[in-house]
Design goal:
Number of helices: 7
Number of strands: 5
Largest sheet: 5 strands, parallel
Helix content: 40-55%
Structural class: alpha/beta
Oligomer: single chain
Strand order of the largest sheet: 3-2-1-4-5
Order of helices and strands: HHEHEHEHEHEH
Length: 145
């Protein structure tokens, strides 16, 4: 029996599971997870490609300090969804304060993982970022707390 699950599909599903975001079909719900991205540069763009194809996930907001990254990501999202309805932020604090975002995927340089993560958690968001969580054990403990 041939599997229809691709390597990319598996990795996307694993990333969702690691982030604690169950795909809609698995939850048996009509709900869509509204996902925001902090960092849509090189790595963020790669991850964005994968998440734009996940059923039950809707990328609704992006945040980056680089205008070119924002423009490219906004165009990619508009092309995928057929309309230009993504919110754009340049400051992660304003982004994290947006109550319409359920979960945050952070594709930031390692030295920027802990501060936006802790801020997102304090705003009640689910978070996902690639390792490491922080630059030191003490910093990671503060995020976890």
């Amino acid at each position: 029996m041939e599997s229809k699950l691709s390597r990319r599909g598996f990795v996307g599903g694993a990333a969702l599971a690691a982030a604690g975001i169950a795909p809609v079909a698995a939850r048996g719900s009509e709900e869509t997870v509204r996902l925001g991205f902090i960092g849509v540069g090189n790595r963020g763009d790669q991850i964005l490609d994968a998440f734009l194809r996940v059923p039950g996930i809707r990328v609704t907001a992006i945040c980056d300090v680089n205008e070119r990254n924002l423009t490219a990501a906004k165009q990619k999202i508009a092309t995928t969804y057929g309309r230009d309805e993504v919110k754009v932020y340049r400051d992660f604090r304003q982004f994290n304060a947006d109550r319409s975002i359920d979960a945050v995927l952070m594709a930031l340089p390692v030295h920027w993982h802990s501060i936006p993560s802790a801020d997102a958690i304090l705003h009640g968001k689910h978070i996902y970022h690639e390792k490491p969580m922080a630059m030191s054990f003490e910093e990671a403990k503060r995020v976890r707390a």
